[in-house]
Q: What sequence folds into this?
């Protein structure tokens, strides 16, 4: 059967857990229009690493959210779509919504990133519900850390993005120790416990933790890059979040169920985005937003 007879929208998925969530939502918005949506996971077989080729990225979406309804395309279908299907052109001025009418007739291959609007972001909390009992490979150590965080009435989860976004030049801003120190000092140091999540906790200890007297902190060193989705679950349990490059901290804040949550963002002109064409975090989070100088 020719691929054009299958009439499906094929959504390419790549990157870490937050990218996978985002791309799933793109497909979810398409399925909301009664379209036959399938997901192309071939990137994880062909490449499956960060931009530096150092940290492994697996398809972890169903490990963190096993109850999601997702239809995965087989290898043959992915190959055919890359050869004969039409491409959905991206627009700098429009974003995909839950009722978008921009998409051409199927079959269509949706590669890379298609920007969603602020309203579509609002489905994250209802769509992505974290249940610690159902997370795949959520270790005893992770459960102990989760219990510790949940018992802490005044916790702040700090995401310190290192790795590729700390050493590679791109569309993101570079954040050094000053930003994180300034962000931490927005809170009451004496009564707050800070939980740090990073690919380079040695750097965090040397450049941030050791520079602040009296800091109550925990360096969460349980998970490797193949279990980063477990870190996202733990980070989202903190009462408040401090974000850095990428979308990890912002997504954790969206998943955070605390009604009085605070999200600290870098103070940059025009608002903080993980990509210039994406929505501002200020527009998609329900948290109170604070800003820290960089």
A:
């Amino acid at each position: 059967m020719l691929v054009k007879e299958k009439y499906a929208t094929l959504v390419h998925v790549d990157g870490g857990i937050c990218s996978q969530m985002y791309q799933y939502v793109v497909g979810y918005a398409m399925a909301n229009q009664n379209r036959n949506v399938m997901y192309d996971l071939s990137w994880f077989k062909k490449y499956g690493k960060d931009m530096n080729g150092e940290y492994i990225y697996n398809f972890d979406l169903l490990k963190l959210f096993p109850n999601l309804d997702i239809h995965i395309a087989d290898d043959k279908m992915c190959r055919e779509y890359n050869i004969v299907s039409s491409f959905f052109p991206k627009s700098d001025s429009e974003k995909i919504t839950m009722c978008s009418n921009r998409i051409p007739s199927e079959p269509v291959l949706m590669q890379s990133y298609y920007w969603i609007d602020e309203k579509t972001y609002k489905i994250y909390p209802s769509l992505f519900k974290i249940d610690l009992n159902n997370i795949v490979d959520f270790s005893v150590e992770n459960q102990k850390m989760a219990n510790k965080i949940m018992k802490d009435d005044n916790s702040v989860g700090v995401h310190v993005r290192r790795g590729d976004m700390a050493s590679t030049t791109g569309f993101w801003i570079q954040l050094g120790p000053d930003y994180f120190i300034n962000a931490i000092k927005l809170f009451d140091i004496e009564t707050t416990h800070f939980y740090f999540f990073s690919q380079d906790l040695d750097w965090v200890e040397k450049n941030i933790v050791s520079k602040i007297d009296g800091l109550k902190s925990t360096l969460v060193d349980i998970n490797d890059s193949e279990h980063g989705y477990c870190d996202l679950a733990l980070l989202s349990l903190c009462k408040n979040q401090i974000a850095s490059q990428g979308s990890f901290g912002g997504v954790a804040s969206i998943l955070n169920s605390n009604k009085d949550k605070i999200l600290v963002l870098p103070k940059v002109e025009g608002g903080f985005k993980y990509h210039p064409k994406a929505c501002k975090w200020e527009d998609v989070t329900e948290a109170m937003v604070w800003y820290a100088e960089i």
